[in-house]
Amino acid sequence: MTKIYTKQSLIEELKKIAAMGWIPNARPGNDGAVGNTLEDLLGIEENNLPMPNAAEWELKTQRLGTLALTTLLHMEPSPRAIKFVPMILLPQYGWQHTEAGNKYPEGEMSFRQTIHALSRSNRGFVVKIDRTTSRVLISFDASAVASHHEEWLGGVKDKSGLGELEPQPYWGFDDLQHRAGTKLPNSIYVQAEVKKEDGTEFYKYSKVIMLKKFKWEGFLQTLERAQMLVDFDARTGHNHGTKFRMHKNSLPTLYEESATIIGH
Hints:
alpha+beta; 5-stranded mixed β-sheet; globular
């Protein structure tokens, strides 16, 4: 039976788990094993935090020291009516998928770019935060394309020219703030040390931080500092969605209040 927690009783249970020291991985082979093992110890279902006002809280876990990115939210850029990624970015700026002719049809195209605001990718794309127009935009500059993409750039020239994206895909601050505020409720952020012995992975849940009240200015700052990235992942047969991703250790920047419950 699933346990029901109050915020305080959950904190007390996490302190008990931290005091247990090294705990074997309960879900070998699972990418989310750190979180799944913790959920098993808490007696809760996956991605379901049973506590009053649970919709306002989210349990997040991470391996200490990892550089892995976490997806904060999915949101397609405007103008959404024209389905910008599959209808413009992919056909005009895409390239042949590495599995074209094997896993996918011969003509399968790909547009996969993880980009940020501090420098352009080797295909000339960058994130721009325009506080004057209250927009987060994607920009293209043909002069920034690396020489080994010269053939691809020739194709772009033939299909759409070498100027700025037209129209430029963007996210309005108001829309993005609403989506982020809804998707990023208060968080209980648990970090685990990891070790391996005789082929078995062990976790020590040694740090717990409570993060309260989503802060829009913090969101913008992580974008401006390239602590948050925009990830496009589309191919001819399927658009996997546009994601805002960041390193979990930057999460406290997104909240007004950060309190360390366990660890330091």
